Structures are given as structure tokens and as C-alpha cells.
Amino acid sequence: MGQSMDRIEVLGANDDFYTAMRRGDVAEMERLWARRREVTCTHPNWSMLVGRKAVMDSWRLILTQAPPPQIWPADADVVVTGTTAMVICIERLGGNELMASNTYVLEDHAWRIMNHQAAAMPAARAN
Fold it and tell me: Coil, helix or strand for 27?
């Protein structure tokens, strides 16, 4: 598989990740995360979560809120290195923007997320 096809597939997996969030789809979120690699997640203003159980418990909590977060990725860019890829993007949630990085690993012929980290955008610097 070529680098450009990998990029397209990783960006598709990234879109699936945000679609699962907007739909509040816990089962899809479970499917999207890696099973054979250690997974980690840092939600804004949360402590770092390590391990599949902690990460999936956090998504169950977030996704079962009514309504689920209406979050949209923007300006996504991806770097693929072998069987690992990283997407950086802006997350748009209401009137707020967060910066995010999502790391993917190729597992069972599919790109699965192994790390999600989102944080507030830095304040604009004065010139």
C-alpha cells in the first residue's frame, strides 16, 4: 500500500473517530481503538488516562451525555511512518477550538487509534 493510500485511510479513520463522538456511539468508539497496543488519552482538563479500560470508561461517560459532543475536526494533517500514523487537527466544539493529536497504529489491516490528546489553543501572541 502506498503512502498516499495510507494517508487517505488514516484520515478516514480520524473522521470515523469524530463521527462516533458526535453520534454518541460507544460501540463504534470501542471498535476504533487499538486492542494489542497500550492506549492513552488526555481529554481537556482531565488527567492522563492509561490503559484500555480507563480510556473506554472515559468515552462511555462522555458519549452517554445528552446530547453527545458536537465536535468537528478541521485542518487535519497526517504523517505516516510505517505502521504508525499521527493526525494533528483543530477540534471545533461550539464556539471553542482545541488542538488535538491522534496517533494510529495499523492493526488487523485497519488503522486503530492508540492515543488521543486534546488541549486548549494557546492564546494569540501580540506582535
Answer: helix
